[in-house]
Amino acid sequence: MKTFITTSLLLSAVILLNSKETSAQVGIGTTTPHASAALEINSTNKGLLIPRVSQSNRPASPVAGLLIYQTDNTPGLYLYNGSAWVALSAGGSASASLSYVCRASSPYIAGGAAAGPYFFNPVPFQVTEVINTGNNAATSGSGTSKLTGFVVPATCTFTKIKLAARVISGGVDNSTNNVTTVTLFKNGVSTGLSVQVTTGSAVGSSGANATTGSISAAGGDIISYQYTQTNQEPTTSYSIVLEGQ
Length: 245
What we know:
CATH class of the largest domain: Mainly Beta
Structural class: mainly beta
Helix content: under 10%
Shape: elongated
Strand order of the largest sheet: 8-7-15-10-13
Radius of gyration: 28 Å
Number of strands: 15
CATH architecture of the largest domain: Sandwich
Order of helices and strands: HEEEEEEEEEEEEEEE
Number of helices: 1
């Protein structure tokens, strides 16, 4: 009988506790959580530590509103909005992403020096001066050239540079690979962020690659690219994508 009464009391206590948990508010560091909050954490010298996960370990089937701190590939707070993970800005809202796309080509000129790169950037200076007839850093648009650069419209951070290449007709197939390197410059100085792609010399040979980093830029800064290649015989078409927030 005593055992029965003790068990009944324990079960009643569990039921009462469960009922309280489902209906009551929770306060940590306070006994009076705000009426509008299901959970209030109060502290004058500590913070809330959000679960830290790598990009590859993000939840496979997240619910809208899920918040994590991503530890790699542009670390920061990320919110799942119901269809995609979005990075949060310092103000707590989803920050807008940006993407600059630049087309370029390195055409073969019979009987003369190979030209490249011919950048097609969103600037109003598209003249033959854009073509650089030497394959070295000094003549490949490394700096604040108005012909191969663009002005950053607002403060941002570039986090990834992508390069895609494909050999097209018009060049020479000399059965030698071509290693193309594109480096991002800011105001005439290398940022150290570069990407490299290897292609063959036959028409149709292609390659793509991407490199991540963190390059801050202010409105008015001039962004440009340095270009080098190891084989000037094939005519190669390029797309360069610069991503950030």
